[in-house]
Amino acid sequence: METPEKQSETSFDSVKESASVVLGDLMSQLQRLEEAMKKEDMGAVYQIYWKELPLAIQQSSNANHEMDNYFTSKLDREFLRMFPFMQLRQQATPVLLDYQLGSYYHDRAVIQLDATQPALLLLPEIKKQWEKVEKGTYREEIEALQAQEDDFDARIIAAGSEIERIELQIQQQEAAKRELEETKGLLNRKKVDDEIDQLDRKILALQEERRKWVPFVSDKITRESQKIGLAQQKQALALEQAIALKELRIIKKRFGSLKEMEKQLQQFVQVFLNKEGK
Fold first, then answer.
1. What is the 3-state secondary structure (H, E, C) of 211-259?
2. Predicted local confidence at residue 103, as pLDDT
């Protein structure tokens, strides 16, 4: 039977042997990573760094964004080589790069490159605008705002005469109510009360109708503010449509279509990961 001291030595030898295997695997991974980086075999670099190296090694090797900078620099170089008309607009984070379609007055980011995946993404809000142009949705929205604006102007013109008409009807109903109240007797009280209730409901309905027209004549500041608001909404939509239309023209010129653009962006990632020695 082994002594406690002998058992301790055996356990330590086992730990040392296991540690040696782990360290050997780690050194092998690091050597393979170094070799892949020298060859610029990006598929291997991503595989080893993100899927094989322990998290602690990933973090320590990227303490000052060394690996982030490595990935973004390689991706940016290859992306602009394949699509030279693109322009880097900003580096949103250490691993996210935003690109615009060329350069024109209303330039803006439309594509985001994520260096950790890697992946290319059309910014969702921009893609939605392009789809609205293709479907004619902007035109419909602008026409709807124009209709609201025209209706608003028509209501302002009609408001004065409508209020006069309603007030006259209210006066007539109130006069009829007074007459009924004066003739109310013991024998016909129930019938008269029912007729008065009907007149009260008519008067309330007319007052509600008048209330809807009053803002068009009584509050000039509010009225003008509402008109300005409609005009600004229409102008903002028209500008948004113009920018998206300009971008779609660039896409058609450079890619042929939006669908083809998305296809080529996905192909770029595959090519990037499967090429060596770029």
1. HHHCHHHHCHHHHHHHHHHHHHHHHHHHHHHHHHHHHHHHHHHHCCCHH
2. 79
